[in-house]
Write a structure and sequence with these properties.
about 725 residues; alpha+beta; Beta-Lactamase; Alpha-Beta Plaits; 27 helices; 30 strands
Length: about 725
């Protein structure tokens, strides 16, 4: 009878021996006929152990008797497992026993004693110490058999050190993976879904407690705990995203809302990648994050990106986007809408007088009023500064738009209380119909601003609806602005002198210097280019150039032997509030050797009443101390008071031509002129009447004590120096 021990493959890669009984007819007669790890035991009990390789296990036969355990035979690779050569073992089991780790030896002895007593198969896992103190983990398995009236075992001792190391590494990797999963700001998961749709959660990190307020173990037992928290409106979308990823095996990404057991609403974000196994099971690995704070920040960023932070109204970007949509809508349905832009008149005065905090309060109140005018279909927006807009989604006609603008103006022009002070609100409005006058958002906005500019230029609280002529006017102004800038760069503008004479005999007193500009052979009216210079930031260089040309012309006339008298030069608000203005005047006076008392600076009432009044008054006082004269131009047309006249301390008043043109026929104009003359006499001021064109006007002025006058009756403005010299040689008699 023979026992055949054959290798059978195991999942751990080792090749343990199993017993197989075979008859003599099938047993091989030589080692060459056998596999390299088979054991044959012949019928006489003599074992032939054949090992031609170095596999990590050792086979031995143990027997037990009165002398204890004896090693009857051991395989040739004894050293690789036990750490000692085969010859050193002899027949003593103690040589092998002493190689067993001391901590494991009591347990192994107990197992062997139990096996001897019970006469049964046994197994044990323990460590073997090699000479270099290396520990080798092994598994020993004993198969019982009766041989020569003694208890015997065929024992296979397998070195599992590699498996133990691999297991330890795997465990360490798993621990690291688990630690990594716990450190991720979200719930890491590993789950699988079988072909029937049943879901099994294999792993879920502890962060799930923070998200769903349930432990990982609770959700693993019942995944429905997480599903039942999903917002009803988001369930179908989440299921659809999972189904799509499950079918396509593409990476999964989705966001949804939940309501936790404590009542907290959260936004979650899921990411993962599904994989399909051969049996049809889908394995998922991924992460679920709480993105509630991220969503809140995104909403805040969107609000900041789309709304004005001060007033909460929509900003320009949102308005343009909505405007494009409305234009496209009405282009399709044949209707029309309207865009209104608003500018608060004199808003800078509020900031200057009451402070920027009061200005912000004013703007918020204005925004609330504007929002109250809008219907749910309309859009109120702040464009920046004190400019606002209102998009009206439906507007039947231009007449309806005009009526709406009037209604809005009445509501917005009501006074506003700011810091206990009542502030008058005045707003200018420009409007445009689209798509009639605005085929795109950009065009509609441009045309609305053109209309607003027209309104502002006319008067406070004005309203204007865009018309194509406004664009032509705006285009001309744009062209003029570019040309004016180029003209100033080359000192191209000219100066004209108009005589100022005494009314008694027409004797010469001085000249008023007036700007003249010829563009492409045609004169450009000062009434057009001087306000344009103010609007485009060219007022200071223009005024400086004219002052220089006026003093140079005066110097040329003096050099020709004909002193020109007092030269009166108009100065803009921007020019006189320039910190360098006084220095510029002094420099030019010195450059052209012009007597300070022969220079007169003309300012208008609107200049001395502006928010720079204090600074301008101080500059004018310095000029008067230097000897330069100061005149108040266009007196009677503005809002100057006696207090301002006292503060400014001017030398001369100039009566506006609008009162002179009918002074001899209109009792009202006559009364105003006489009042101004009386006031000037009381204050010790000179008076110049402007725009005198007839003898009757001159006679009225003479009769009522007006000493000085200028107008076409005495001479037209001329830039021609020869004509000026001829005039000075022989002034016309009047």
């Amino acid at each position: 009878m023979k026992h055949l021990f054959e290798r059978t493959n195991t999942s751990d890669g080792n090749q343990p021996l199993t017993v197989k009984r075979a008859n003599n007819s099938t047993a091989p007669k030589s080692p060459a006929a056998n596999s390299s790890a088979d054991v044959w035991i012949d019928t006489d009990g003599e074992a032939v152990i054949l090992f031609d390789n170095t596999l990590p296990f050792s086979v031995l036969r143990l027997s037990s008797g009165e002398g204890g355990l004896q090693v009857e035979d051991i395989s040739a690779n004894c050293r690789s497992v036990w750490g000692i050569p085969r010859d050193a073992v002899g027949g003593a089991f103690d040589r092998l026993r002493e190689r067993i780790h001391p901590q494991d030896l009591p347990r192994v002895d107990g197992i062997l004693a139990w096996a001897i007593e019970k006469r049964c198969e046994w197994s044990a896992t323990f460590r073997i110490l090699h000479d270099n103190a290396d520990e080798h983990w092994v598994v020993a398995r004993g198969l019982t058999g009766l041989d020569r009236n003694a208890e015997t075992w065929i024992v296979m001792v397998t070195d599992i050190n590699a498996q133990i190391s691999a297991f330890a590494s795997l465990r360490e990797s798993e621990m690291k993976l688990r630690a990594l999963a716990e450190s991720i700001p979200g719930a890491a998961f590993h789950s699988q879904t079988d072909t029937s749709g049943r879901e099994t959660v294999n792993f879920l990190s502890a962060a799930c407690q923070e998200i769903w307020e349930h432990s990982a173990e609770e959700i693993r037992r019942d995944p429905g705990l997480a599903w039942r928290q999903i917002h009803p409106q988001d369930v179908s979308g989440l299921k659809a995203s999972l189904k799509q990823a499950n079918e396509s095996l593409e990476p999964w990404f989705h966001q949804w809302r939940i309501l936790t057991p404590s009542g907290r609403a959260k936004w979650l974000e899921g990411r993962g990648r599904p994989e399909r196994r051969p049996d049809g099971t889908t394995v998922w690995s991924g992460l679920v994050l709480d993105v509630s704070e991220q969503r809140r920040q995104e909403r805040e960023l969107r609000r900041l990106a789309e709304h004005d932070d001060l007033t909460g109204l929509a900003n320009r970007m949102v308005l343009n986007r909505r405007l494009d949509d409305e234009i496209a809508l009405h282009r399709d349905d044949g209707g029309q809408g309207a865009l209104l832009v608003f500018d608060i008149d004199g808003f800078n005065e509020i900031n200057d007088v009451l402070g920027h905090g009061a200005g912000d309060t004013y703007l918020r109140t204005f925004a609330e009023r504007l929002l109250a005018l809008a219907t749910p279909e309309d859009l109120a927006a702040r464009l920046g500064g004190d400019e606002f807009a209102l998009l009206l989604s439906g507007m039947e006609s231009e007449a309806d738009l005009g009526a709406a603008m009037t209604r809005f103006s009445e509501r917005l022009d009501q006074d506003i209380r700011v810091k206990g002070t009542t502030v008058t609100c005045s707003v200018s409005i420009g409007g445009v119909l689209f798509p009639r006058d605005g085929a795109t958002a950009e065009e509609a906005m441009r045309h609305a601003n053109i209309a607003l500019s027209e309104a502002r230029n006319s008067s406070p609280r004005a309203r204007a609806v865009y018309a194509p002529d406004m664009t032509r006017f705006r285009d001309r102004r744009s062209t003029l602005a570019g040309s004016l800038r180029a003209e100033l760069a080359r000192d191209g503008l000219d100066i004209a002198f108009q005589p100022i004479v005494t009314t008694g005999n027409g004797s010469h007193s001085g000249f008023e210097a007036l700007a003249r500009w010829t563009l492409d052979g045609r004169p450009v009216s000062p009434a057009e280019f001087i306000p344009l210079a103010d609007e485009t930031g060219l007022a200071v260089p223009l005024g400086t150039l004219l002052l220089r040309k006026a003093l140079k012309r005066a110097a040329d006339l003096r050099a020709a032997g004909h002193p020109p008298g007092v030269i009166s030069v108009n100065v803009s608000a921007a020019q006189i509030r320039d910190p360098d203005f006084f220095r510029i005047v002094e420099k030019l006076i010195a450059e052209f050797d012009h007597p300070p008392e022969a220079l007169e600076i003309e300012v208008t009432e609107t200049v001395i009443l502006g928010r720079w009044a204090e600074q301008i008054a101080a500059t004018l006082r310095r000029l008067r101390q230097r000897g330069v004269r100061v005149a108040l131009d266009d007196f009677g047309t503005g809002y100057a008071s006696l207090v301002h006249l006292k503060q400014i301390r001017v030398d001369r008043l100039k009566i506006d031509r609008s009162f002179i043109s009918n002074v001899d026929a209109d009792p009202g104009d006559a009364a105003i002129v006489k009042a101004i003359l009386g006031l000037a006499e009381a204050l010790g001021l000179e008076v110049v009447a402007e725009g005198v064109e007839t003898s009757e006007q001159l006679a009225f002025l003479r009769d009522h004590g007006c000493v000085l006058a200028q107008g076409y009756l005495f001479g037209r403005p001329t830039p021609n120096e020869r004509e000026l010299l001829d005039y000075l040689r022989s002034p016309p008699q009047v």
